[in-house]
Structure formats: structure tokens, C-alpha cells
Design goal:
single chain; 465 residues; alpha+beta; 3 domains; three-stranded antiparallel β-sheet; 12 strands; globular; binds zinc ion
Amino acid sequence: MFEQNQLSAMDFGTMSDEGLIEALRAVHGAAAAAQAAEVFAVRELYRRARAASAEPGPGGVRAGEFAAAEAAVALYVDEGTAGALIDIGLVLEEALPRTRMAFAAGRIDLAKVRVIVDSTRALAKEVVDALEPRLLEAAARTNPARLRQAARRWANRLDPGGARRRRERRQENRDVRIRAVQDSMAVFDGLLPAPGAQTVAMRLREMSLQVCAADPRTMPQRRADALVALADGSGRLRCRCGRGERCPKVGVPVEPPRRPLIQIGIAADTLLDMREAPAFLAGYGPIDAALARLLAEHASFQVVSEHTDGGATDEAALRRVASEIRAVDGMCRFPGCTIPAAEGELERSGGGLAVLCSRHGRLKSLADKRKQWRVWRDDRDRLQWTAPDGDVHTTVREGARYLFPHTDIELPAVETAGIRAAFTADRPTGEELLYPLDGHIPLHRQLARIAPENDIPDDAPEHRG
Ligand SMILES: [Zn+2]
Ligand SMILES: [Zn+2]
């Protein structure tokens, strides 16, 4: 294996073509071995967290999960990725010893490890023991996509009777998720049992045909609109042919959509068309000013003052301050978390109120008892989190960056002939370029709720025994 200083000292410019390919193989193996070390290290962190929290009760059972929070904050990756690394580490140790060794030696990379983990997950132990050496041989001379095909074929040959069991196991992985991409768009994605997926597909098709033939939308556009119409309560598409009374579909009643399903933060001057600062769509991130104004046409409004005060005592004032704090916080105040503030709870944190999602609210309340994570308030804007390893991470009020654009002081600005152009280093959330783990479904159930969006909040206190 190459040491890091050897790698950076390689002079690619002087190598022959063959030498370059040779070097490429070597560095790929070194990267794989380093990722294996990362998997084993985070898995060890998890083991220790579990061992330290053996006591019964909701805190004890789940405390190991916060190893993922600690790793995620230290590496600046999302918690779902850290959870997937822990899960893969556990599976390698429990069921795939040969794969574990090959990974540690850098003979296979994380993408192929993931294929082997995925394609052996619902197989009997004897089948896995027979299959694993073959998969490793194949992994040495093929790419992850072909390896996945071969694994499926062999699994079906070795265990033809297991199809029903695999289907039943697979159904446990059903899921619907969204992922923000550029330009105010998001990918809506999911894994459903085929009959359920077909039910959704046929319903969308039916709805797509509820408008007349002159509706200008393509079928893909209609299906997309129909899915939203299913969710917003309107239940059907309104025809856009623009023919008024001559439209054969005129007079079909369309329910008005339910409104308070989304929340947008927008600066007052942008709303009034005097400025083009981006607005904030809770759960997504920045959207352009024109789209925000379009959405605002049907919105109900709440005015948020820049100097929200926490000194209110009567019930109504507290409620008002609570919604203002949600607006200026924008999202959960734990480092790296993107859960919208509307879905979080207000918690006393470092002597003030701040929004935390259910997962990080639990982390903080455990921390209060164990003194592992410490939270304090630097000023009105900044919350400091000290991780168990002593590292300090600061979070700011994200919502305020949109509501009061002049507070966005980290924004690099470029002046060009009177036009003010700004560049931000945003990357779409949910994309980890280093870890080919997008959509990994943990085999260990306790790891399936590590991503904050998968956390199931505890019941209200009165339901506890
Ligand atoms: Zn029409
Ligand atoms: Zn959170």
C-alpha cells in the first residue's frame, strides 16, 4: 500500500502510458484500502457507543446511533452516509469475512463491496458461503454494474426457491425520498412493491387524461403535475387549453389545494419586487425570487422582525415568538442537518430557544445527561456545538440569511460594471461524491433511522409509562 506522501510525490508527467495505468491501479487500491479503514474506524466508534450505553430505556437502546452523528459532523458528510458505513462495517464482520479482507487490502473498492453486501443480504448462510469467493473473483475483473448482474444470476441459480423470501425481504426496503437538485427542482424517487408502484402509475395516467387533448402539457409533465395534485388535495388536473367554455372538460369541479403544506422565507423587498435575493423553501433550500413571488400569490403571510425577542411571557406572544424563531432558524440547528424548522421542536439550547429535529433533540437531551455534546449560544445568531472529541462546530440561523439578506456576510460578491453578481459554493444536498452509497438500505434495523429524515419521533410524554 502507498503512504500518503508517496502518492502525492508521484510525478505523473514523466511516466509512460503503461506506467500511468499501473500507477492508476495502485492509487485506486490505496483509496479503497483507505475507505476500508474508514469503514472499520466508524464501525469501532459505533461499537464503543453501544457498549457505553447498555442501560435499558429509549436513550440506552438508541444511544449507539449517535456515533453516526459524531462521525458525520467530524467528516462533514451526511448522517445517512455515516450510518451506511457503519452498516457495511457490521455486515462485513458478521457475514462476509473474505470480502472484509479483500477490502482492507484494497483489492476491491467500496462500490463493489456495496454490490456484494446488497446481493447477499437475503440469502441463506450456506449460499453466501458458496457465493462470496465467486463474487470476489468476479469483482477483480469487472465493474460494479456487471458484478451486480452476475450476483443476481448466481443467487437465482443457487437458491431458486428463495425468490419469495427475497421478495418479502426486499419489500421491507420500500421507501419514498426526495433529493434537491439545481434550479429549484428536486428528484422524487422511491422503491415500491411492484403492484403498489403500478397503482400509482395507473392513477397518474388516469389523471393525465382528465384534461382535454388541447392541453399544452406533454404526458410526462402531466404525470408530474398529477402526482402533486394527489398530494395537495386538489385531486385532479385543471385543463390549461385556454379555450374557456369550449373546453370539453369545463365545469368539472377541482378542489382548491390545501395550502400550508410548504413554507417559504422571503425578504420583504424581494417580495415587493424591489430586489432579486433568493428565497428559502423549507426542506429544499434556495429558490429564485420570481418563483417565490409566484408561490406567494396564494400564500398566507407572517411578518418576521429581524430583532425577534425571546422575552415574551403570555401565551399568544410566546406562540408568535415560536413561529418567528422557526422562520429565522429555517432548519434544525444541529451541524449539517437540513430538516425544515416546521418539522422540528423548539428547545432551550445554550440559554435561548432554537429549533431541533426529533433526532437531534434526542441527541441534545442525552447530551445534557451525559455531558457528551455541549451546546452554547455565542450570540443571537450563533450556536456552538462541542463534539465529544472536543471539536467545535458553529451553526447560524439559516432562515435569517434569506429573510434579511444583509446578514449573509459570508457571501462572496463580484462587482461587474454596476451589476452585482454573487456566487455561492452550494452543492445539491443528498449527493456524496466520495461515497457510492446513495440509497443504501441498512441491514441493521437500528441503523435505518439514522438519517434525520428517517427518524421516528418519540410519542408525547403522556404516552410514556
Ligand atoms: Zn381543455
Ligand atoms: Zn436535525
